Amino acid sequence: MDVVTDYIRLMSPGITLLVMLTGFIGLWMGARGELIPSLSLWCLLGIGLASAGSSIFNNYYDMDIDRIMERTSKRALPTGRIKPKTALFIGVMLSISSFTILTVFVNLLSALLTMLALITYSYLYTILLKRHTPAATEIGGISGSLPPVIGWVAVRGSISLEAIILFMIMYLWQPPHFWALGLKFKDDYKRAGIPTMSVVKSKDEIILKSIYYVSLLFLVSLLPYFLGVVG
Questions:
Q1: Nearest partner of 82 among 11, 10, 1, 14, judged by Cα
Q2: What structural domains does the chain harbor?
């Protein structure tokens, strides 16, 4: 059972479920509450597989810093309980399965957007930016903002103003959330040499920037009501 648990944790099930939930919100809003069960299930499965795959890629690439950080040092890859090649293979297979399912059972645009989210997180954020700039959080937020758009596109077949607003809501929520986590685990990030906002900026600066994002989030979150998408 410990082995099974390791593989499940490798796919970050908590994050994956939250990603699927935001995808469901996009589905529900796009369908005006009249969901097509089969389409919804295929869409959520595709989103979930891609999220799990991207989590594996992140764990694979970050093995070296995960060994240094206290909160991640006991993960299966840093400790050797799962072989890196095995993890990478599973990540690739999950990603291919996601693209195939979404292309065949949903639509091509939803599949392409899902791959955009996966590549943005796994490559742009994890490999190119995370170890070099605190702006990684804001740029990486693109990937976490796409699931509701994917859900919307699964139903509507195209990106509309409503989908863009959903994207903006998700995007504006993420930086303050991750900056707060960064403050909590500041020592870990500093030890690993990760230039998060909490490492390179003062707490007061982070609070001010978070207030800015939250204020924008409040304003943007009112738009679905005024556009008649909800309520």
A1: 10
A2: 2-226 (1.10.357.140)
